[in-house]
Amino acid sequence: MAKTTSYLVERMGLEGVLAAAKEKTVPLHRHSAWYYWGGIALVCFIVQALTGILLMVYYRPGPEAYESVRQITYQIHFGWLIRSAHNWSATIFLLSVFVHMFSVFFMKAYRRPREIGWFSGMLLLLLGLTFGFSGYLLPMDDLAYFATKVGLEMPNAIPLIGPPIANLLRGSLEVGEHTVQRFFALHAVILPMLYLPLLGLHLWLVQKHGNALPPSEETKPESERKTIPFFPNFLVKDFAIWLVTLNAIAICAALFPWQLGPMADPLMPAPEGIHPEWYFMSQFQTLKILGGIFPGMAGEAIGMVLFTLGLVLWFLVPVFDTERPVGKRGRQTTNFGLFVVLVLIVTTIWGYLGVR
Hints:
70% of the residues lie in helices and 2% in strands. By secondary structure, the chain is mainly alpha-helical.
């Protein structure tokens, strides 16, 4: 193994990379556990890519979408397991990305020189949510069909540009086979082409700038700050967390296989308790609340404006909070983050309580 490693390092010119890995350190403090969530998201994305390639071997977008998923689930050997692993890894992926984003936010790891890392991470989150939305329709069962139909009403509520965007995504006046083909192209081709280069940039920035210290550690003298070597100490722990994540995906996929409902029928009424996935439940419930307050389409339009404004403010946090040590703006930013977390949790739970 040592000879093989030496051969590869010499032939590929990796001496500088190896030396940098040996010199790099990672801060050690009571918040260090939050550093692992980015790695959890990465391993989940790798699982999705590998299982997605396997699913594409048998999946047929268009009129035969449902039948191909039925064959994958019930006829292809271990097809149900691969499909379940793909869906469960997507769920854990988005959960870990949200945790990673909030940990970066509250540790204020978006401040100079890490602003570009924050911006790229936010774009990755938006692309990840689009991955989830576009992939949800592909089985074309009744739940996926009606949930997507409801979901497409959200961009449709955006003034002026909303209806053209919704029509472009649908490919016709109603959700159908053309929508499935467009969502498949978006899910399997366009989004990966956008996601992979951005992910490479994000990972490079993380390696370049290292792990940020939380404000409580920044105030300590240099002599009191503890670190551990990145290679091999932190990397071994990271691999252990990855192994735990893979086991969690495997257990969920095996014990709680992803179900396939009846084939979508546009002429049938929507099933009881129709709702989007958990990562869109907060927006869904907020639109319901605003729709009950304001008449007609006004509630949905106001909701989309609020979502857009909140997203822009969240995206531009590094421009607003630049103080070191944490001052008035830093405390205001933290309070804003706590408010956002509280709203997301309350509206998500509220939404699920309202599901029949």
